[in-house]
UniProtKB/TrEMBL annotation:
The protein's name in its UniProt record: Membrane protein
UniProt entry keywords in alphabetical sequence: Signal
Segments forming domain DUF4142: 27-160
Keyword RNA-binding: no
Residues annotated as signal peptide: 1-21
């Protein structure tokens, strides 16, 4: 039993963001971060047009502004690190965007906020891991500087989500 507990604990520590960030190349990190930014901006632009909820629209406008600015800084850090960035969505993100595009009213707001909570949770994990153990100093600094904003976005999204689901 003790061996099982120790082994389980070791696996958990092995899966922490800091541990896996050591294996993430600068190009992979920059690509994942850039796709995340693009997804959040594209969903936010859709939310600005389609949502009827003032809090959701306000949040979406903040996403467009903040993630557009973050992307510009990421592009500079990536270029200095020799890592390419691409803003084309991967299949998973495109599927989420397409699914959201088919929703209206409260269903749209609920789905948008759920997507944003998930996206910001994933982004916070990615940034936290790379800021601790990333291999490219400029990208590592960008991750560290961007993480507090992403965490703030996550908290904001979580505070809006219950109201959007009513």
């Amino acid at each position: 039993m003790k061996i099982l507990i120790v082994a389980s604990t070791a696996v958990l520590f092995a899966l922490t963001p800091a541990a896996w960030a050591q294996d993430v190349s600068p190009a992979d990190f920059a690509g994942k971060a850039s796709v995340g930014n693009a997804f959040e901006v594209q969903e936010a632009k859709l939310a600005v047009k389609q949502s009827k909820d003032g809090k959701v629209k306000s949040f979406a406008r903040m996403m467009v502004k903040d993630h557009t600015a973050a992307e510009k800084k990421l592009e500079a850090a990536a270029k200095a690190s020799g890592a390419p960035v691409g803003t084309a969505l991967d299949a998973d993100h495109q599927a989420k965007l397409d699914a959201l595009n088919g929703k209206t009213g409260a269903d749209f707001d609920k789905a948008y906020m759920a997507d944003q909570i998930q996206a910001h949770t994933e982004a916070a994990d990615l940034l936290a891991g790379y800021s601790q153990s990333g291999g490219a100093p400029k990208l590592k600094a960008w991750a560290k500087a961007t993480l507090p904003t992403v965490k703030m976005h996550l908290q904001h999204a979580q505070s809006i989500a219950p109201a959007a689901s009513m």
